[in-house]
Design brief:
Shape: globular
Structural class: alpha+beta
Number of strands: 13
Order of helices and strands: HHHEHHHEEHHHEEHEEEEHHHHEEHHEEH
Helix content: 40-55%
Strand order of the largest sheet: 4-5-1-6
Radius of gyration: 26 Å
CATH topology of the largest domain: Alpha-Beta Plaits
Distance between the termini: 45 Å
CATH superfamily of the largest domain: Reverse transcriptase/Diguanylate cyclase domain
Strand content: 5-15%
CATH architecture of the largest domain: 2-Layer Sandwich
Number of domains: 3
Largest sheet: 4 strands, antiparallel
Number of helices: 17
Length: 466
């Protein structure tokens, strides 16, 4: 019996289903009400939108920036204020209140939850956004009371928030300092406060880190920019270090594994990090990562073959990849020093990632506004969407090839081979189609059933029918 209480307690699937239904009911309403420069935990919005919003605010003039973080945002939200702001009908409010007050069972010890929203809960991100809704409006009210034209004042003072991280930008240091006082006072109403260790006042010429990027303006000559500076957004040193440590850990972990296994483990990490950073000035960071990785992999190879020469090791693990031209009159692209086993199994280089600028979502747009064409076009061009899936999304006009329904932001997309590779199919676009995750499962399940019916002897069943 003691062992039973040592296990963590989770909500039942029935309660999870109810909370999921509540989220689906509340989200469209609040998406229509949320402030335009709120980007965290919202459908159709991402970190990249927040970064572009910051760039748009500072690209014409250097500014002072309040880079702030709300301390224990999820843990300290006042329930009473949150429920008042929610302003929903009684039965829904009672259900949400009951969930907020349900308490937590940890290692057999029950702890009441008199404040905050449980982290990891289905509805927690939405409730946190509802609690913080109004921050931008409060700063706008202050801007309108400043001397001068209201419209210009509103444009000059910008708030960009991603979940519990936000920045406030203005040319005047005094204005930003006053905004900090206003926000601190506003947060007290919901029992929240700024985290001193992560809240700082900086100038854009000094630079600051936000959402994994370093945003900074550099002084340049008048011939390069009439403004006298240029704004660069690069991967932050902290995130570069974390990425490198992750790659190093994988290489150390698989130092006795085959090259094929190592490539399999490293490839998704490299592609994921590059896709996240490819919308900004990342070429220098990508090249640096490639150099470090090349040295690390060389040492990995030399360690495996201590009795072989370096030339022998390099020839064994590195090769030349020839990329066929897309057009007949173009020359093939040759890439040397590729960590590879063959043409189809190779480790992608960071620097080969194409820089693609992200287009910020329009301020008043919402995935629930009915403009499915707009949202599907955005999905296809999202930095973290692979080019292959983007092309398939455009070809299918944003619809699932199985059920015919439109893809929505947040859907899990799966690439399906029309002719399975086991039957001679290839990875060319004409043999691929994009499906919902559940549609992909359903399609393969149907194939398994048909395959089983066609086989009379159970011993003839193929362990890998696809």
């Amino acid at each position: 019996m003691k062992d039973l209480f040592m296990q963590p307690f989770f909500l039942s699937s029935t309660i999870y289903t109810k909370l999921d239904a509540i989220t689906l009911a509340l989200e469209p309403e609040w998406e229509a009400r949320f402030e335009p420069n709120s980007y965290g935990f919202r459908l159709g919005r991402s970190c990249h939108d927040a970064i572009v919003a910051i760039y748009s605010s500072i690209k014409q003039a250097s500014k002072w920036v309040l880079d702030a973080d709300i301390s224990k945002c999820f843990d300290k939200i006042n329930h009473k204020t949150l429920l008042q702001k929610l302003n929903s009908y009684p039965s829904m409010r009672r259900l949400i209140k009951g969930w907020l007050k349900a308490g937590v069972m940890d290692n057999g010890t029950f702890s009441p939850t008199n404040e905050g929203t449980p982290q990891g809960g289905i509805i927690s991100p939405l409730l946190a956004n509802i609690a913080l809704h109004g921050m931008e409006e409060r700063i706008t009210q202050y801007a309108e009371k400043m001397p001068g034209e209201k419209i210009k004042n509103r444009r000059a003072l910008t708030v960009v928030r991603y979940a519990d991280d936000f920045v406030i930008m203005h040319k005047s240091k005094e204005v930003v300092e006053e905004c900090q006082k206003i926000i601190e006072s506003w947060l007290k109403d919901i029992d929240l406060e700024l985290k001193p260790s992560k809240t700082k006042l900086v100038h854009t010429m000094e630079g600051f880190d936000f959402l994994g990027f370093n945003i900074r303006q550099y002084t340049v000559g008048k011939n390069q920019s009439k403004k006298g500076f240029k704004t660069f957004i690069k991967p932050s040193k902290k995130k570069m270090k974390e990425h490198w440590e992750q790659l190093s850990y994988i290489i150390e972990k698989y130092k006795a594994a085959s090259q094929e296994t190592l490539i399999k483990e490293l490839k998704p990490i490299i592609r994921g990090w590059c896709n996240y950073n490819r919308s900004q000035v990342s070429k220098e960071a990508f090249s640096k990562m490639d150099y470090l990785l090349w040295n690390k992999l060389q040492r990995w190879g030399y360690r495996r073959h201590p009795n072989k020469s370096k030339t022998w090791v390099n020839k064994k693990y590195w090769g030349t990849k020839v990329e066929k031209p897309k057009k007949p009159w173009e020359e093939p692209k040759i890439d040397n020093w590729v960590f590879m086993t063959n043409e189809d199994n190779y480790l992608p280089k960071h620097a080969k990632t194409k820089i693609v600028r992200h287009v910020k979502v329009k301020e008043a747009r919402s995935p629930f506004d009915g403009d499915l064409v707009y949202w599907n076009n955005r999905m296809a061009k999202h930095p973290e969407m692979s080019s292959q899936k983007g092309k398939l999304l455009n070809r299918q006009k944003g619809k699932c090839a199985h059920c015919g329904l439109m893809f929505r932001d947040g859907d899990s997309l799966e690439t399906h081979h029309i002719i399975p590779r086991a039957q001679g199919g290839n990875d060319q676009l004409k043999n691929l189609e994009l499906l919902h995750l559940h549609c992909h499962d359903a399609k393969h399940r149907t194939k398994v059933i048909k395959h089983k019916k066609s086989i009379t002897d159970p011993s003839e069943l193929d362990n890998k029918p696809f």
